[in-house]
Amino acid sequence: MKSSLSAEDTENDLLPHLCSTMAILSLVLAGELLALALVLVQNPLLTFSWVQLGYTSMIVQWIILLSAWALCQLSRIFSRVSVVIGGCLAYGTVLLIALLILVGAWYIMDDDPSGMGLLKNMLLAAIFSGIFLRYLYLQQQLRNQQQAELQSRIQALNARIRPHFLFNSMNAIASLIPVNPELAEQVVENLSELFRESLKETSLVPLAQEIDLCRHYANIEKVRLGDRLQLEWSCDHVLSSVKVPSLTLQPLVENAICHGIQGLPEGGLVSISTRVDKEVLRIIVTNPVSENSDNRTDCLPELKNNGVALQNIAYRLQAYYGKKASIEAKQHCHQGVNYYQVTLTIDMEE
């Protein structure tokens, strides 16, 4: 299971994580291109030497891979020192590894190392490693900035959706006070438990916890709407390991109740289905709507009060999962009854 944000992603690192599979493959490819360029510069194309290419590639790859490993081991130190000290430490580490590899290669190949030859190769190593480390640093700083902006955006969206939840819940309590004050008091107590969970500073929560949150909210609305509100839950038992952005499912249930069931004198059934099929999570919320509903097919509804909630969820899903998540809302007719259905899909595969 995977999400777009993790603790590792939000750290303000000096350099990217160089020990991942994709990073190693990229480094090997870059090293091979560098070795080829060095051989072509030293020899005309007509006298190209494959032996020299192999020898140069071996040295370059050893320097790159050992440097990547060393920088990975030093990553915790980089996070505790200033950028200047961390940069100097990284640069010095790469140059030291280059020196050891060059001297070792000469002795292994039974070559007599010359001072000028070693100086020339160390200058090349200093130039290319400096350029490459600078590129990696700028790349990571851009990534840190993007992650910071993304985290701020998610926090802002969460701040918008939680008051929205509060206002609708308080309206339900207000309608109970003149009719049944004791029941209203019980609802307030339940609501306090509900908000204790919903206001936790947690980006991702287990889907089972999100479903429990929705059950609490639906119970509050059921007290207000009575028999007009019927609920049908169809949830897989494997969902305890699945994590989703907090307050993802609750606004969908809220929309179904407030803009579906509440507008029908006879009420209706809200169906909530969650299942995982081949690492793909699908959440489907279906509710009946009146014939003059403003909901439009294949688009997110622009409802007077709650349209922002679905747009909010869409933005948060995009922020966490990118193209791996989608939300679709559509209206259809079945046996003479209009239904509004929201389908949320997340590809959880790594």
From TrEMBL:
Q: What would you give as a GO molecular function for this chain, any one? A: phosphorelay sensor kinase activity
Its transmembrane ranges are 21-41, 53-71, 83-109, 121-137
Give the top-rank taxon of the lineage listed in the UniProt record for this protein: Bacteria
**Does the keyword Membrane belong to this entry?**
yes
Identify one Gene Ontology CC term for this UniProt entry.
membrane
Q: Which SUPFAM superfamilies match?
A: ATPase domain of HSP90 chaperone/DNA topoisomerase II/histidine kinase
User: Which positions fall inside the Signal transduction histidine kinase internal region domain?
Assistant: 153-229
Ordered alphabetically, the record's keywords are:
Membrane, Transmembrane, Transmembrane helix
* Gene3D superfamilies reported for this sequence: Histidine kinase-like ATPase, C-terminal domain (3.30.565.10)
Q: What is this protein called?
A: Signal transduction histidine kinase internal region domain-containing protein
